[in-house]
């Protein structure tokens, strides 16, 4: 069975920046509160003409360019998002068409902040089954479209962006996918969700008046779960594959809160230089944080061939996932 490797990375963030100071003119908050409680300084916000598929296509094109392959060679597109252009058709279909990926099938994967980790887990298995040679996994979210900019507890946290990995078979057993530990716990559904717009509460004048089409979050509950689960699941994954935490060269975590990341790194005994943090620039871009952070790690020359990389995420659902990969280039 072939193993799967990450052969290219690409990303896109919209040009407009919303700073903490900008937010302090919209809701009762300030730069100091946001920076100390979350680590976020600014986030990028999509203009009114830009939807999730537009950012996804830009990230995809950059990934294909890096890999030096035409879109027609793709076998599958997995689009991880909670902010699709519309509920159906899937945003994967819209992206396939815009890319001209004439040989690809694909689907949207809804797992909120864990979406990208689940996406690369699925891609690794499609490739190692021997049935797929080129799978594009895209994480893209336009969170600003579902944020209530009168609610200071949520609107400060998120930003917009997209990123992608190309997953291909590897010839070497010393690189690529090592393994995963993923889980869901739907008892946490009530703590982070968008209540209306689905079959339970379809859009109506009432749901709009009640502001039910926005992100609702019980912040402290989600925070406690994230702190516990991110480190627990990382330890589970390392134990499952017999890997000592000291072997982890780089942890690339979901970027929600610098305190969640610091607690996980501390529990695993990872020094700061082995952890990527870039939420100060982008905020929480949901499914896009991990490819955006991987892009930054590459730009900073912090990833080398053979490095053991731990991707970890926790999100709405609850969902949680950890992937271990040996870096390829
Ligand atoms: N500016 C200023 N004050 C704010 C504020 C803001 N943007 N948001 C909340 N506050 C206030 C609260 O009203 C509360 O005031 P009170 O004590 O008078 O009631 C106080 O700050 C503390 O609020 P609390 O919610 O307990 O703060 P916290 O330290 O838990 O931080 C989060 C809030 C949202 C940053 C934190 O809970 C968190 O990061 N949760 C996880 C969120 C997340 O990452 N979700 C994405 C999926 S992983």
Give a description of the structure.
- This protein has ten helices and 13 strands.
- By secondary structure, it is α/β, with parallel strands linked by helices.
- The chain has two domains: 168 residues, 3-Layer(aba) Sandwich (Peroxisomal Thiolase, Chain A, domain 1); 151 residues, Thiolase/Chalcone synthase (Peroxisomal Thiolase, Chain A, domain 1).
- The strands form four sheets. The chain has a five-stranded mixed β-sheet with strand order 1-7-6-4-5, with helices on both faces. Strands 8-13-12-11 form a four-stranded mixed β-sheet, with helices on both faces.
- The protein is globular, with a radius of gyration of 19 Å.
- The two termini are 21 Å apart.
- The site of coenzyme A has 20 residues, from helix 2, helix 7 and strand 12.
Give the oligomeric state.
single chain
* Whole-number total of structural domains: 2
Question: What's the total helix number?
Answer: 10
Whole-number radius of gyration? 19 Å
Q: Biggest sheet, in brief?
A: 5 strands, mixed
Poorly predicted regions: none
- Strand proportion, as a percent range, falls in 15-25%
Instruction: Give the N-to-C terminal Cα separation.
Output: 21 Å
- Outline type: globular
The top-level CATH class of the largest domain is: Alpha Beta
The mean pLDDT is 97
CATH topology group of the largest domain: Peroxisomal Thiolase, Chain A, domain 1
The number of E-state strands comes to: 13
Q: What would you give as the CATH superfamily of the largest domain? A: Thiolase/Chalcone synthase
Q: List cofactors, ions and other ligands.
A: coenzyme A
